[in-house]
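User: Structure tokens for this complex, please. No commentary.
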Amino acid sequence: MGFFFGRKKSANSAKERLQLVLIHDRTDLTPAELEALKDDLISTISRYVEIDPGAVSINVAQDGRVQRLLADIPLRNAGRRRG
Amino acid sequence: MTAKVVTVTSGKGGVGKTTAVANIAVALATNNMKVVCIDGDIGLRNLDVVMGLENRIVYDLVDVVEGRCRLRQAMIRDKRLPELYLIPAAQTRDKSAVSPSDMVRLCDELRPEVDWVLIDSPAGIERGFKYAIAAADKVIVLTNPEVSAVRDADRVIGLLEAEEKGPAALVINRVNPTMVKRGDMLSVDDVLDLLAVELIGIVPEDENVLVASNKGTPLSLDSRSRAGQAFKNIARRLMGEQVPFLDMESPGLLQRLLGRK
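Assistant:
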């Protein structure tokens, strides 16, 4: 019935909410701290290579009970460097 | 004999630890195993009432630890089974009366005498939890398919890994198949995805559990209820048997008659 009224299943909400909560419980890293880490990482890396700060993404990934910090940092092509 | 020491813990209170310990102990004892249960919840003792042994307490865990009686004297024998014993918690003391090394010493004394020592851990992650897991060879983490219980289970599983007591074995208690099917309860697979640990039991929600604790006769003593069967299966898995899990998703008769999936 829920389907017809577009109601989201509460079990799905529970699972999604828990996924986020558990990441922070396990790493002791708040979303704000993760943002700060991202900014530090961008400024450090920018001292060596040119990157697009807007394209950087940092996430905590789960592999069983192991947590991984995954950073995707696209480099700007040196040949097309501006100015 | 060299007993295996198993602690049942959960982080969150009220998820069914005491019921699980009573039923797994009875199921192991029914398989001709010599079993001692220890109520680790000093100050909030309950395993005695759930097992129906509350009128036979003379000495308790703290009496043993403080040397007022011998271990044997604090072991209440359950007359319904040949080799099932309970060491009750003290009711008028607190968790500071026992230390992790006290539990290690006590379990080392029990190991040569019995096949299984089951410890009912208090809720929480403080001192009571620490002494309850100190002697454990295996830790069972019990949870319910509910956000706060799953979150606390995750925390406890992490602490067990840090204390090198892992990997924990998970029991998901009070699963309501109708609610799971309706999408209003986390499924067994959801909980396993979240917690990523080995599963050792799935126990359906069952009114018979309350009836059994009212009477002080653990379910696995006589009942053919689904929860009782689930606890018996956990006992068999602890003994090393491969037992298929109860199918929580199987459609009930009514749903099948209505032709719903």
